[in-house]
Specification:
Strand content: under 5%
Number of helices: 9
Number of domains: 1
Number of strands: 0
Largest sheet: none
Order of helices and strands: HHHHHHHHH
Distance between the termini: 24 Å
Helix content: over 70%
Amino acid sequence: MLTFISFLAFTGFVAAYASWKLRKQNLHTQDGYFLGGRSLTGIVIAGSMLLTNISTEHLIGMNGSAYKNGAIIIAWEVLSAVALVIGALYFIPRYLKMGLTTIPEFIEKRFDRPTQAIMSLILIVSFVVTLLPIVLYTGAINIESIFDISQTLNITKKGGIWLTVVVVGSVGAVYAVFGGLKMVALTDTINGF
C-alpha cells in the first residue's frame, strides 16, 4: 500500500509542478502548444528526448532480452545515443536555420506537400499500430506486477492489464492533449531525474 501511495504522491507532484510551470503559457497559439512557446531549455529538451527514447518497452523488453541473450542488446541504445548527438549537433542547427521545427516540414520543403502528407501518415500509423500498443502493454505489465491491480480489484490478470492500459493511455492523452509539448517535456524531464 505504501508503494501505491508514494506512486500517487509523486505522480500528483509531477502533475502539479508541470501545471504550475504552464500557468502563464499561451497554449492557444501553434508556437505555444506545439513548440512549448519556444521556451524549452536545453536540459528540458535533453530530458524529454532521453525519456522519449527510453520507455517501458526498453525497461521490460530490453532487460528481458539482455537476461536471455546477453548484453549485445545494449548496442541498440549505444547507437541511438550516437544518432541523438549527431542529430543535435548537425541536423537540428540546420533545421532551425531554415526555420523548420519538424522533419515533415523539411520533407515538404525538400520535395512537395503530397510527399510530406504520405510520410506523415506512414509515421503516425506506424507509431499508433506498432509502438504505442507495445509501450502501453509493457507499461501495464510493469504496473500490474508492482501494484497487483488484478488482485486488489478482484479481477483477472488480463482484466487488470487491460484496465491499466486504458488508464495509463487516458492519463497520457489528457496531459499531452491539454498541456501541449511543454507539459510533455516537463513531465518527461522530472520523471527522468
